[in-house]
Design goal:
The chain is α/β, with parallel strands linked by helices and 256 residues long. Helices cover 39% and strands 14% of the residues. The chain starts with 11 loop residues before the first strand and ends with a helix. The protein binds phosphoenolpyruvate. The site of phosphoenolpyruvate has 13 residues, from strand 8.
């Protein structure tokens, strides 16, 4: 895609801690993170589990590391047992939420429709969204990875006004690479990221496309991050397993 001269998009590395770490383990991991040096320009974020968000926000209050949430509900409040609203997240200091992670789609029946509502609720509450999507192995084997990804993005996001993309970060996470040790090659990641950016450009124009950060997720490790991040359309990473060790996570962060 042309028009790279006005690129404003951010580089971001976010750690998704998933359902790992109780309170004291979270505190230890945060202390270990605080002992590391950030040498890259990337924004750094970590997503502890809900019960540890408040303590994590307090512990990292004066650090450049942002604490983000792994999920939220679309309703403002009400009879949704076990769920958490945008307002609740904001009340403990969280301003960014991951939505649409493949584990939420696979195990908790999250659909494009419910995700569209969650995205709307997050944006209506002035939150930033890291929106995840990605094809399954069967989609890639049958050559359908682009159409699957295009539909996931269109169905959940393309009802939005262009301005909304100021608060949206995309995270391409091929399901076959998440937690499997199998990574998309840097070329596969670049090809898909370029396709995603072009899809954005077709719908919203080059400015939105060039200014939207697109992260890669899927078995990103210290030994492969640099090559993946060196690709022009890869603006950072969403990191699962490797974000649970401060040294590995910072090796990835500092790969920029
Ligand atoms: C993820 O779950 O978002 C992820 C990328 O996990 P992992 O790095 O462990 O593959």
């Amino acid at each position: 895609m042309e028009g790279y001269d006005l690129i404003m998009r951010k580089q971001i590395v976010a750690g998704n801690w998933k359902m790992n770490n109780d309170l004291s383990q979270t505190q230890s991991l945060i202390e270990a993170l605080q002992s590391q040096e950030i040498t890259s320009k990337a924004e750094v974020m970590v997503a502890p589990t809900f019960t540890n968000l408040l303590q994590a926000c307090e512990a990292l209050k004066s650090s450049p590391i942002e604490v983000i949430a792994q999920n939220m509900h679309f309703a403002e409040n009400g009879a949704y047992t076990g769920e958490i609203s945008a307002d609740m997240l904001k009340s403990v200091g969280v301003k960014t939420v991951i939505l649409g992670h493949s584990e939420r789609r696979a195990y908790f029946n999250e659909t494009d429709e419910s995700l569209a509502k969650k995205v709307d609720a997050a944006l209506a509450n002035d939150m930033r969204v890291i929106f995840c999507f990605g094809e399954e192995l069967a989609d890639r084997k049958s050559g359908n990875e682009e159409s699957v990804v295009e539909n996931q993005i269109k169905n959940a996001l393309f009802h939005l006004e262009a301005q909304a993309f100021n608060n949206i970060v995309l995270a391409y996470e091929p399901v076959w690479a998440i937690g499997t040790g199998e990574t998309a090659s840097p070329e596969q990641a670049q090809d898909m990221h370029a396709f995603i950016r072009q899809t954005l450009a077709d719908a919203y124009g080059n400015e939105v496309a060039n200014n939207t950060s697109i992260l890669y997720g899927g078995s990103c490790k210290p030994n492969n991050a640099q090559e993946i991040f060196s690709k022009p359309d890869v603006d950072g990473g969403l990191i699962g397993g490797a974000s649970l060790k401060a040294e590995d996570f910072f090796a990835i962060v500092n790969a920029f």
